[in-house]
Amino acid sequence: MPRRLAWFALVLSIGTVVAYVALVQKAMIVIPPIGYLGALAIAVVPAAVAMVRARGKLTVGIFVVCVLLLGFAIAFNVMLRVPPGPTAFVVGQPAPDFTLPDSTGRPASLAEYRGKKPVVLVFYRGYW
Q: Confidence band (pLDDT; 50, 70, 90) for 121?
């Protein structure tokens, strides 16, 4: 019984990682962290139970793999949330000049409005 529990935990852990990669890369589905971190944390529980019931190379190895996958997933989640460095914009500093199309497609530059009118940028999703 402990071996089956350990194999179940391993399949759940690796399946979670494979499903996450497949869904994010192929289907472009955003998965909340509670989904993949929760599944990996749940997989650690049967691995731990299997290891306690029958301490052998297989159960300990699977437990270590499950814990490592959970640890890597937590580190990955933290790295996604932490910005890489200081932002290019500083509060109180003038915005850099740029040219973007307006709602009619005509190019609009920030330099055209600087010092003349307040500027509000609105980003909206394109056509459905």
A: confident
- 16 contacts 36 by C-beta, under 8 angstroms: yes
DSSP state at residue 88: S
Instruction: Specify the DSSP class assigned to residue 97.
Output: P
Place of tokens 């000049």: 97
DSSP string, 25-42: HTS-----HHHHHHHHHH
Q: Are 108 and 101 contacting, i.e. CB atoms less than 8 angstroms apart? A: yes
Q: Cα(55)–Cα(24) distance, rounded to whole angstroms?
A: 36
DSSP state of 99: E
CA distance 81 to 34: 14
Over the stretch 75-109, which tens digit does the pLDDT of each residue have? 888 877 666 666 667 777 787 888 888 878 899 88
Q: Angle at CA 45, nearest 5°, toward 13 and 71? A: 55
Q: What is the pLDDT of residues 6-43, one digit of tens each?
A: 999 999 999 999 988 888 777 677 778 888 899 999 99
